[in-house]
Amino acid sequence: MSAEERRESVVRAAITEFARGGYNGTSTEVIARRVGVSQPYLFRLFPNKQAIFIAAAERCLQDTRRVFVVASEGLEGEEALHAMARAYQRLIVHDGEKLMMQMQVYAAVAAAEASGDHAFGASLRAAWERMWDDVHLVLGADVNETTTFLAYGMLVNTLASLGFPAEHRVWTGFYDSARPVE
């Protein structure tokens, strides 16, 4: 396996482990073990734990961004909005690690910011901004539509993370395409 292939397997393993344990609760040892490499080899691929986390977080955001782009391809307005909402619901239902990793990203960046480390979240804010820009263009460059769509998405993240079932009343205010997939 090439170094690039091994690096890719580290990113995938890191998403799984960081999604479960968060930044502070996940050791590089557990990631190395999941990949089947030694810790020293892991650090030949990435300079430190923070670099591994950032690579995993950027991938998670990139994958989410790709879900929106693919779902909305060739569509405009309401059609695009509903296609992206349905695609996102499928993503978080069928790949729950993506949702958990997103939540861990927000917590890790907030903790870093609170401790005075403003550089930690810079690339992650840039990745989130690229996702915002993609959604914004698809929704006709309408700031209100983009904000509303992403605000609902964050509420979806919260409700799904808390485990509210699809039939619960908290979902009644959502358009059908944004409700949980059963």
SSE blueprint:
Blueprint: H1 3-21, H2 28-35, H3 39-45, H4 49-72, H5 77-94, H6 96-114, H7 122-138, H8 143-162
Mean pLDDT: 95
CA-based gyration radius: 17 Å
**SS summary, helix count:** 8
Structural class: mainly alpha
What sequence of helices (H) and strands (E) makes up the elements? Answer: HHHHHHHH
**Poorly predicted segments:** none
Give the % helix.
Answer: over 70%
- Gap between N and C termini: 39 Å
Number of β-strand runs: 0
- What coarse outline follows from CA principal-axis ratios? globular
For the biggest sheet, the summary is: none
Strand content: under 5%
Walk me through the structure.
The protein is mainly α and 182 residues long. It has helices at residues 3-21, 28-35, 39-45, 49-72, 77-94, 96-114, 122-138, 143-162. The chain has eight helices and no strands. Helix 1 (3-21) packs across helix 6, helix 4 packs across helix 5 (77-94) and helix 4 (49-72) packs parallel to helix 7. The chain starts with a helix and ends in a 20-residue tail after the last helix. The model has no long low-confidence stretch (mean pLDDT 95).
